[in-house]
Amino acid sequence: MSKIKPITFDPTNAFVTPHGITQEQFDGIQNRLNACRSEMLDIDLSLWADGKNIPASKEPLDAGFHEMPERILDDYQADRDSSELGKILETAKRLGALVDKVVVLGIGGSYMGARALMETCCAPYHNELSRAQRGGRPRMYFEGNNVDNDWAQALLQFLESDSQGDGPEGNWGIIVISKSGGTLETAASLRIFMDALKSKVGEDQLSQFVVPVTGVSGKLADLATEIGCVDRYLVPDGVGGRFSVFSAVGLLPAAMLGIDVVKMLEAAAAMNAHFQTAELGSNVVMDYVAVNHLLEENKGVNIRVLSVWSKSLESAGFWYDQLLAESLGKHEKGAFPLTCLNSRDLHSRAQQHQEGARDKVMNNVIVDSWRTDPLAIGNSKWDQDQLNELADKTLPMIMDAAINGTNLAYKEDGRPTTDIHLPAADEAALGQLFQMLMLATVLEGRLLEINPYGQPGVEKYKKYMNQLLREDVTA
Ligand code: PA5
Fold first, then answer.
1. How many CA atoms lie within 13 A of 99 on its CB side?
2. Which atom of ligand 1 is found nearest the CA of 235?
């Protein structure tokens, strides 16, 4: 396993008086958290592996995500070609040679991880680069996550006008991801986009250009069989949608983009090892849960702001919004997650975060090194903006000042903050962060006695939406 530089969690600025937590409270939660960790490691994992005698209170038990990185890596190391990851890499190569644009159709947990991976690990303007600049990797577009007519039309028109001539530049393909295989937004989009693709490549070629990722059975699985898709992948049983980023759901789009998926999985496995062994006080998962939970329990802090300090991380924040909201937003409980992208959102939200209700904690996500050389403000003969005195200051220096200045301002007012540090915005950091936040969400669920798996509340709107459509009733 290559050496993974660890991500870190610094809760110092959550210990602020009188609105933060105390050391006594932090130390006092150790036994409860240890018990919840043991429940996850010693009970949930074996119950999940056995698949039998699962108590009703634990149903559904989608603990399959927990050791998925290790399972996938072990299989790959045992037999590169026939392993699932080996096949995913092969499909990425095959489809990537065939097309220059891939449309990923999926919603919720079936696309948010892939989008986060693209935005964190690829060049910021990946889709705008030439094929050569992209290293021969395709452009990627996300649809099927809405039913917005104008955006769907715009993508269809773009695909048609931009896919001319022979070779990959003249072709586009579809990766459709739906665990249930019946989600209406995705299914409707698949029909529409597949119809356009059929007109382009011909019905007999569709099987080469459409790659489904779905459950063993279901409507999409049946459709894939009927079309005869040459490649198809499973969303494994016992892995929930929002916990599925390390399955084909995230791995296939990531592999298409040339993201180092092995490194990402190794990083996630390293986070598992850390979670299992480190004690409270030096365990990023447990420390994060302890601080956030204690703030909620003792101070009524039920809004969790994930303040990401890099544009590359905004979608990772949205992925976490979904993870926390769908997992713990049950039984009239669960903190409210909110992603802010800074320094941008300091100009829209900082007023409220500084002086509004004391119901928020700011969990910063800070990238410690930028990919490219620092840009300096520079000298100018036009000094009307009076920036010559800052000529040597670079954008990373300004960002550091914004982060530290914001933390100081909140601290002065007794507003709790924490810092998650990522060594870089890359697959190693994101692999750890994804796994850290999934483990943290389940750990907190066990602490709150809320089953973090399943999303029964989401079914309600689906039922009524289908009813309204199929009965032809106008809402
Ligand atoms: O976390 C979840 O399970 C959900 O957000 C699902 O991912 C989402 O509802 C999409 O479901 P499906 O993959 O079945 O189309």
1. 27
2. 13
For residue 13, what is the domain's CATH number? 3.40.50.10490
Q: Does the CB atom of residue 455 touch ligand 1 within 6 A?
A: yes
Asked if residue 318 and residue 248 are part of one domain, the reply reads no
**What is the tens place of the pLDDT at every residue in 418-444?**
999 999 999 999 999 999 999 999 999
- pLDDT tens sequence across 281-330: 999 999 999 999 999 999 999 999 999 999 999 999 999 999 999 999 99
The residue behind tokens 């299992």 is 276
Q: Tell me the residue range of the domain where 382 lies.
A: 8-60+264-456
Q: For residue 441, which of 13, 128, 65 has the smallest C-alpha distance?
A: 65
Domain contains 452: yes
Helix axes 112-121, 314-328, angle to 10 degrees: 150
CA-based angle 352:357:359, to the nearest 5? Answer: 105
pTM: 0.97
Q: Is the CB of 240 under 6 A from ligand 1?
A: yes
Looking at the fold, whether 173 and 84 belong to one and the same domain comes out as yes
Q: Which residues contact 195 (CB under 8 A, 6 or more apart)?
A: none
Do 96 and 223 reside in the same domain of the chain?
yes
80 and 24 both lie in a single domain:
no
Mutate to test the pocket of ligand 1, among 65, 104, 183, 463 (most ligand atoms within 8 A of CB): 183
Measured in degrees and rounded to the nearest 5, phi and psi for residue 289 equal -65, -45
252 in the same domain as 286:
no
SS3 content of the chain, % helix, strand, coil (to 5): 55, 10, 35
For ligand 1, say whether the CB of 183 is within 6 Å of any of its atoms.
yes
Cα–Cα dist 232/225, whole Å: 9
Residues 253, 387 share a domain = no
